[in-house]
Amino acid sequence: MVKMLVISLGFFLWCALAPLAAQAPRSRPATPNDNLVSFQVNGDGSATFRLYAPEARKVELGGDIRAEKTERAENGVWTMTTGPKVAPSAYRYYFLVDGMRVNDPKNPAVADFRPMVEIVPAGDTLFWQQKKVPHGLMSIVFYESAVTNSTRRMFVWTPPGYFATNKKLPVLYLMHGGGDNDTNWPGQGKAGWILDNLFAEGKIVPMVVVMPDGSIPVETFAHDLSQVIVPYVESNFRVYQDPAHRALAGLSMGGLEVLETMVRYPDQFAYVNVMSSGWWTSQMSNYEKYDQLIQAAAPKLKATLKYFRFTCGGSTDGASGNTPPTRELFTKHGITSEFSDMEGGHTMYVWRQDLHYFTQRIFK
Q: What is the CATH number of the domain that holds 77?
């Protein structure tokens, strides 16, 4: 079949994002990058930028601002510091790593503008493409997090007609993968188009979909979601405030955040989808730890869960070895789940399918 190559370079909300991160969880040793602070303003008014690039021969700071001093530490962290008294403003920047331009992977405030290609069969209109239907509102929301002691951001989709009625709606909390941020589902994931199309076809219960920034440690995110994000949404949006009207889904690293939230807060979500994720089989201490946590959470999970689903992208999905044994831990303690294993790898092709399927089966 003749195929059409559509090159999309859009801005912010509906622009596509390169799949920098939705990488499969895998065993690796800790690195300085795990807790790296990539940017800070110093007491003398200078600014310091950091990048973990242990194999690089040369790293430079590019963009609207320049570094006067660049150093490489023995642990592979490059530190670039500007001159003092930088004028207060907003500055676009990037790193040049051996001549290659690289965005700061630790900064969620990067300009969300990246190229991506869509390869679509000519004449086809797929479920994730924009159609001539009523569109929901995709809002950018900032909130203050007492868990992280910082201002954080999330995207929130509300269905067409949301502001024209007083009806309360259920909520789906949808997490991205590692290395991405809250723009991933609205951008590369096409969540807005998928939800718009399903709503227009009458295939989903009207719902609010919250897409937080999960680019913080997994356990920290579980606390931020349950202690801050959920209460914020329920105080600022017209939604139900009980577990039966909450759903939780996430891909790759976001799937680990889903699992962490489930075992830490087992009575908060009735519908759960873990996409291409699971605890690393090479770190069996994880299985010992979560075996105990699941056992403790099991009574509440059994009472709260209405639909629990694991999905994977087949044999080429890097998480395929982690998902079944993780699922078996829940089965061991009487927590039943559904499993889908479609070929497609550790890619957004699979996760768009997961979102399309999952949203049609929740809150019913």
A: 2.60.40.10
